UniProtKB/TrEMBL annotation:
Binding-site positions, [2Fe-2S] cluster: C130, C135, C172, C176
Keyword Ion transport in record: no
Region entry Disordered, spans: 209-230
Names of required cofactors: [2Fe-2S] cluster
GO MF entries: 2 iron, 2 sulfur cluster binding; metal ion binding; NADH dehydrogenase (ubiquinone) activity; NADH dehydrogenase activity
Protein name as annotated: NADH dehydrogenase [ubiquinone] flavoprotein 2, mitochondrial
Keyword Iron-sulfur carried by entry: yes
Superkingdom of origin organism: Eukaryota
GO cellular component: catalytic complex; membrane protein complex; mitochondrial inner membrane
NCBIfam families documented for this protein: nuoE_fam (TIGR01958)
Entry keywords, A to Z: 2Fe-2S, Iron, Iron-sulfur, Metal-binding, NAD, Translocase
Family note: Belongs to the complex I 24 kDa subunit family.
InterPro entries found in the cross-reference section: NuoE-like (IPR002023), NuoE_dom (IPR042128), NuoE_N (IPR041921), Thioredoxin-like_sf (IPR036249)
């Protein structure tokens, strides 16, 4: 009878023939979040944080007590993923575990739970299109069709032949008021998408040009309607100003009075 840990360790060491491993494009929306050994993703795959990222790691870990380093798992995995072209390898996770002095399984548990960790290589631009109800009703599937048409991608989680784009369908990313939207490389939100502005955005990415993230309707400010505020317009804004110095003096006087009575 093997313990769970022994079985896990055996599985992690199993080297499958890479012909079996190269995963074809899948028909479902997400990628694989558990580990699949592949040529570029085994324990021996080199990974080392850059000096700059070691400084960032130090800054992050300063936020936590020494015995709660584990709290840095998500932060460090994000750093590792970003450094490695948005691909979080097994060796990168092991590096994170080593730095945080936790068993590797503690890192694997986190990265196999959160879908924002890419356990397979993705293109230079990882396009995550939201297809939850508000975005779906506002044309998310037209956006995905445009992306497929302009990049040659046929299935979700496929990377375009030029290695530039990977398309993924995701659930609500919290920008429903400006639907439809997509997130790029876990960082930038592009909202108010239409097939036209999506095509333009892809072209700009292809040319390596910037494209202002956020609402794509010029009249829109943040999540307000394009026609501006239409509700609660009669609410008077009251700015509270407190004199903290006076409040402190008042508190100290009350405290002194209390002490004098005892
Ligand atoms: S439904 Fe798409 S961001 Fe919320």
């Amino acid at each position: 009878m093997f313990s769970q840990r022994t079985i896990f360790n055996k599985l992690m060491k199993t080297k499958m023939p890479t012909s079996l491993i190269k995963t074809p494009a899948r028909a479902f929306s997400g990628g694989f979040y558990n580990h699949r050994s592949a040529e570029d993703n085994v324990e021996e795959t080199p990974f080392e944080f850059t000096e700059e990222n070691y400084k960032e790691i130090k800054r992050i870990l300063n936020k936590f007590p020494e015995n709660y380093k584990q709290s840095g798992i998500i932060h460090l995995c994000f750093l590792a993923q970003k450094q490695n072209n948005n691909f979080l390898t097994l060796s990168a996770m092991n590096k994170v575990a080593k730095i945080l002095e936790v068993p590797p399984i503690s890192v694997y548990e986190v990265t196999s739970f959160y879908t924002m960790f890419n356990r397979e290589p993705v293109g230079k631009y990882h396009l995550q299109v939201c297809a939850t109800t508000p975005c779906m009703l506002r044309g998310a599937y037209d956006i995905m069709d445009t992306i497929k048409e302009k990049t040659g991608i046929k299935h979700l989680m496929e990377t375009s032949k030029d290695g530039l784009f990977t398309l993924q369908e995701v659930e609500c990313l919290g920008a429903c008021a400006n639907a439809p939207m997509m997130q790029v490389n876990n960082e930038w939100f592009y909202e108010d998408l239409t097939p036209e502005n999506t095509a333009l955005l892809l072209e700009r990415m292809r040319q390596g040009e910037g494209f202002e993230p956020g609402p794509q309707i010029p009249e829109r400010k943040n999540a307000e309607g394009p026609q501006g505020r239409t509700t609660l317009t009669n609410v008077e804004h009251v700015f509270h100003e407190r004199d903290f110095k006076a409040a402190k003096e008042e508190w100290e006087a009350a405290k002194a009075e209390q002490a004098a009575k005892q």
